[in-house]
Amino acid sequence: MESKDYLKDISEIKDLMNKSSRFISLSGLSGILAGIYALIGAAVAYWLVITYSNGILILDGQIYRLCMLTLSMVALLSIVTGIFLTTRKAKKHDAKIWDATSKRLVLNFLIPLVVGGLYILIILSQGKYGQSGGLMLIFYGLALVNASKYSIGDIRYLGYIQIILGLIGAWKPGFGFWLWVIGFGFMHIIYGTWMHFKYDRK
């Protein structure tokens, strides 16, 4: 009986250490909504390009600026939704939303994302936009993998998928838009649904 009690105590200590070193309040629902936002944004951008630019996107044109505005709105809505739902989940479980672990999570997520964003802006300013879709997926995937050390480890698999899609997009630039739709749209919905039923419903 004593050995069983010791094993139980060790298991509980291990769980507490794991929870203290990982931010586990991420919401699967926020992933689903981010995917829906991405699909809506992609549909709007596609409609703008096909309707007003004959399928050709000119970097210094008005349609390009509208597409970038749409993309920015998708990112903003995703961030706001993620913060709101994650905060609500943390309060529900009496967990801290902003502590040393969540700070490490945000820092490790932002480093690849910010560097990637700056690099993409640089190549866009040089008129090299064929690789932008693939690069977005690659750097976002790297950010997820990097942040997974301080959160639910399963998000690294989403990161791997995004990286693979991004590499395919770099290899076949003509499919960059549709790979972006798959990665940021459908994969977020699929993965968010899986995370919701695995973690959020407990």
In short:
The chain is mainly alpha-helical and 202 residues long.
Written description of the protein model:
The longest helix has about 30 residues. About 5% of the residues have low confidence. The chain contains 7 helices and no strands. It is an all-alpha fold.
The biggest sheet amounts to:
none
Distance separating the two termini? 30 Å
User: Which sequence of SSEs, written as H and E, runs from N to C?
Assistant: HHHHHHH
Strand content: under 5%
Average pLDDT number? 81
Give the count of helical stretches.
7
Which stretches of 5+ consecutive residues score pLDDT under 50?
12-21
Structural class: mainly alpha
Principal-axis shape: globular
Question: What would the keywords be for this entry?
Answer:
single chain; 202 residues; mainly alpha; 7 helices; globular
Write the SSE topology.
Layout: H1 2-21, H2 28-52, H3 62-92, H4 100-125, H5 132-147, H6 155-171, H7 176-200
Helix pairs in contact: 2-3, 2-7, 4-5, 5-6, 5-7, 6-7
